[in-house]
Every structure is written in C-alpha cells, then in structure tokens.
C-alpha cells in the first residue's frame, strides 16, 4: 500500500474507536460505574465514568462500524481505494475496547492521586487506542490481523494522539468538555 492509502485505511479502521469517547462526553451523566466507592481513600474510577456514557459510547461506535460497512463499496469506489469493512464483533470490539481503555486510564489516574479531569499526558491520548486494539484482537482475531498490519498500526499510534488533541480542543472550545484533554 502507498503511504496515503495506508493513512486513509488506518483512520477508517479506527473510526469506530474514535467516536465512543466523544459520544460519551455528549451522553454522559447519571450513575457512576464505581457507584461512588473508594479504594485507598480515592474513588475507584470517579464521576467521569458513567454507565450511560459507556453504553451510549459503545453503541455509537458499533453503529458507526455497521454504517461504514454499508457505505464502504461506494466510498472505496469514489476514492479509488480499498477500505476495510467491519463485522459486528469487530465493531463492538473496537467501540467497547475504546471505552474500556479510557476507564482503565481513569483507574490509573485515581491510583496516582489525579483528580477527575486531571491530565495524564500520553495515557490520555493512547488509552482508548490500546483498549480498542486489544479488544478487537480478542473479539475478531482474523479480521484484526488482516486489517491492522504493522504499517497500519504505526500510522494509528502516530496519528491518533494528534487527532485526539484536535478533537478534544474543539470540544473544549465548544463548551462540551471541561478540559481540553
Ligand atoms: N463520560 C462518561 N462515561 C465514560 C466516559 C466519559 O459519562 N465512560 C463522560 C463524563 O461526563 C466525563 C466526560 O464524558 O466527565 C469526559 O470524559 P473524560 O475526559 O474521559 O472524563 P473526566 O471527567 O475527565 O474524568 P477522568 O479524570 O476520570 O478521565
Ligand atoms: K479520558
Ligand atoms: Mg478528561
């Protein structure tokens, strides 16, 4: 694959993992997953990780994966490229994995004394990528190895933090998010 093709392929393949956290920002609220419980004097996860946000985020990412699969032939034809499609397992793995990675990061933030909303550079930008890739690998192993070849993985790891900074900056400026990370 050419470089441009690899970048387009990688970003398309990751779209179902990019949407969940943003959907959760819009949909979040209600009961926190940790039910207010603490561990070592600090919240297990904090009020920023809710059942509603997690559910709606996962549903949004999965729905997007199925929609992308529907439009893939026409988009590929229009671009003169070849783009990946998503099985339900692949879409669900990416979407739920993105949410799990973000939840795991909040767990680590609380254990290291960071309050809700505190920045953890590096972790903030890659938590959902690692979660999404690991879950997709477990949920749809053969789809994963066909879709995420080594060059594609390199693009994902380099491009995602950039995209994350940009989208969160926009969400902050629009007043949707309390912090720009
Ligand atoms: N959100 C949610 N459920 C999730 C993830 C996010 O409801 N599983 C919502 C919450 O309203 C949260 C907002 O999206 O406040 C922003 O998400 P994020 O930045 O991940 O959470 P923070 O509030 O910054 O908390 P933390 O420090 O734990 O990341
Ligand atoms: K986060
Ligand atoms: Mg935050």
How many E strands?
Answer: 2
Largest sheet composition: 2 strands, antiparallel
Strand order of the largest sheet: 1-2
The radius of gyration computed from the alpha-carbon positions, rounded to a whole number of angstroms, is 17 Å
Bound small molecules, by name, code or SMILES, are:
cytidine-5'-triphosphate, potassium ion, magnesium ion
**What's the number of helices?**
6
Low-confidence stretches: none
**Nearest-integer average pLDDT:** 96
* Tally of discrete structural domains: 1
In percent terms, what proportion of residues is strand?
A: under 5%
Tell the overall outline.
elongated
Structural class: mainly alpha
Q: Tell me the helix content.
A: 55-70%
Distance between the terminal alpha carbons, to the nearest Å?
A: 33 Å
Pattern of helices and strands: HEEHHHHH
GO molecular function: CDP-2,3-bis-(O-geranylgeranyl)-sn-glycerol synthase activity
Membrane topology: Multi-pass membrane protein
Enzyme class: transferase
Cofactor: Mg(2+)
């Amino acid at each position: 694959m050419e470089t441009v093709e690899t970048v387009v392929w990688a970003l398309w393949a990751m779209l179902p993992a990019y949407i969940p956290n943003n959907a959760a920002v819009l949909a979040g609220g209600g009961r926190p997953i940790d039910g207010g419980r603490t561990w070592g004097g600090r919240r297990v996860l904090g009020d920023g990780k809710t059942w509603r946000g997690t559910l709606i985020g996962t549903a949004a990412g999965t729905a997007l994966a199925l929609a992308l699969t529907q439009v893939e032939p026409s988009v590929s034809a229009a671009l003169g490229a070849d783009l990946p499609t998503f099985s339900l397992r692949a879409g669900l793995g990416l979407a739920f994995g993105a949410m799990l990675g973000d939840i795991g990061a909040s767990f680590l933030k609380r254990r290291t004394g960071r309050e809700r909303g505190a920045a953890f550079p590096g972790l903030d930008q890659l938590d959902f990528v690692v979660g999404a890739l690991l879950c997709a690998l477990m949920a749809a192993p053969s789809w994963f190895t066909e879709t995420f070849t080594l060059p594609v993985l390199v693009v994902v790891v380099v491009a995602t933090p950039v995209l994350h900074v940009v989208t969160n900056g926009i969400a902050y400026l629009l007043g949707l998010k309390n912090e720009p990370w």
